Amino acid sequence: MGILILLFLLSLPVLGYLLYKQARKGVATPVKTLEYVFIAGFTLSFLLFCCGLMVYAADYYTAIDIVDGGYSPFASRHLLSLITFFVLAVFGILKLWLKGRGMPPLLFVLMLVFVLIGIPVSATVFVQISHNTESYDGWLFGFLPFAYMITAVAVICKCVVEELAVANDKVYRNKVLNYLNQKMAKTAHQPFYVLVLLIPVFVIIVALLILCGQEADSMSKVFTETTTWRFSTKTHPPFLDHQGHYLCTVAACGDPKVVKPLRLGRRHGHEIIVNRQLLIANAFEALIQENLPAAHRIIRSCYDKYGYPLSKKITSKRGSNLVYRLMKPLEYFFLLCLYLCSTKPEEKIAGQYAL
User: Fold this and answer.
1) Which terminal CB of the chain, N or C, has fewer other CB atoms within 10 Å?
2) Of residues 255, 252, 292, 257, the one with CA closest to residue 271
3) How far apart are CA 216 and CA 202, in angstroms?
4) Which has the closest alpha carbon to 74: 209, 84, 90, 65?
5) pLDDT tens digits, 77-103
6) Rounded Cα–Cα distance for residues 73 and 347 (Å)
7) Is 271 helix (H, G, I), strand (E, B) or coil?
8) CA atoms within 13 A on the CB side of 207
């Protein structure tokens, strides 16, 4: 069964090309091949982007296990605005690619504006995912905006060249239209006229999105109301299983250069990120439990009562780094006790939170 599924997946690109070739009969084979490569790359990048959204789906205010996923680079509350501009931009590319100069002039210009708006939006997405403070795999999101910008530039260049050739030969009876046409046909004047057209279209789209419940500045908030990414302005709750040692917060949330995470571990059935300080603390607790069980129950009860509420207040890297440094004297004390009371202290430390 697995072999059949694999063969089916491998045959999809071939089947797709055969269908595409049938749909584009009148186009030269080299052009069709190049177009299909663009389509395949765009589709693959879109699937990777969707995978990224599934893996990194949490909003900044949600407490998560960093092992299971990550925080989204896009605020879900404002995601409709981003999706709308992306859909319009891709729709514009498809129309320009399939119809080109065969469209009515106004529709042609409108599609061109959609595509142009999509370029800075894609560039912003690319910059947003280019940096993450928690070392998430932002590359899953990177292919789609890059593929869009390459495709958009290729389509726009083709359309502009065609339009310039046609515009230079057009003569209107109306003097005003003829004057505007001649102005628009000049390459030096085009950037200005493109900006003039972009602004009202952008404003109209934003106005429609406001009617759908979005905010006027949703296109900026979709990037800023996030955490850990390039344009993020929010902090997130500590990475916790919420059932144990608040040093788990330090191990997962602190600056890796400071807290020095070592590996993954397992606590209460959940995978956590551990550092040496956490391993030493837990090994010391195990030592107390083995030799002084009554004292351990009292200490554990107090720790559970005050440690967990304290862990919820550690919501930033700076706070995590501070707690890590404050715990350093205790870490050295725990280590000293382990070397005094345990025959194999390093084995006991390494055995904590074993997977």
Assistant:
1) N
2) 252
3) 11
4) 84
5) 999 999 999 999 999 998 888 887 677
6) 40
7) strand
8) 6
**Cα–Cα dist 34/150, whole Å:** 13
The runs of H, that is alpha helices, within the chain are 2-23, 29-55, 79-98, 105-128, 139-169, 175-185, 190-211, 218-224, 247-253, 256-259, 276-291, 293-311, 317-326, 328-341, 345-350
Compute the mean pLDDT over every residue in the chain, rounded to the nearest whole number: 78
For residue 242, what pLDDT is reported? Answer: 45
Mean pLDDT across 147-176: 75
More confident residue, 183 or 152: 152
Amino acid at 318: R
Token readout for 352 is 């904590």
The distance of Cα 40 from the centroid of its chain, to the nearest Å, equals: 21
pLDDT at 147: 92
Task: Return d(Cα 45, Cα 139) in angstroms, integer.
Answer: 10
Whether pTM > 0.85 for this model: the answer is no
Residue 248 to residue 240: CA distance in whole angstroms: 6
Distances (CA, A) of 212 to 15, 69, 78: 39, 30, 11
CA angle 189, 191, 194 (to 5 degrees): 110
Residue in 142, 140, 354, 163 with CA at minimum distance from that of residue 264: 354
pLDDT above 90 coverage of the chain, percent: 18
CA dihedral 333, 337, 343, 344 (to 10 degrees): -30
Give the tens place of pLDDT for each residue, 264-322: 777 666 667 788 888 888 888 888 888 888 888 887 777 766 666 666 667 677 777 88
Contacts of 129 (CB under 8 A, 6+ apart): 73, 138, 139, 141, 142, 229, 230
Pairing of strands 261-267, 270-275: antiparallel
Predicted pLDDT of residue 188: 45
**Contact between residue 220 and residue 74 where contact means Cβ atoms under 8 Å apart:** no
Q: Give the pLDDT confidence score for residue 109 in this predicted structure.
A: 78
212: number of CA atoms within 13 Å, CB side? 13
**Type of residue at 197:** L
Place of tokens 């090309």: 17
What is the pLDDT at residue 100? 76
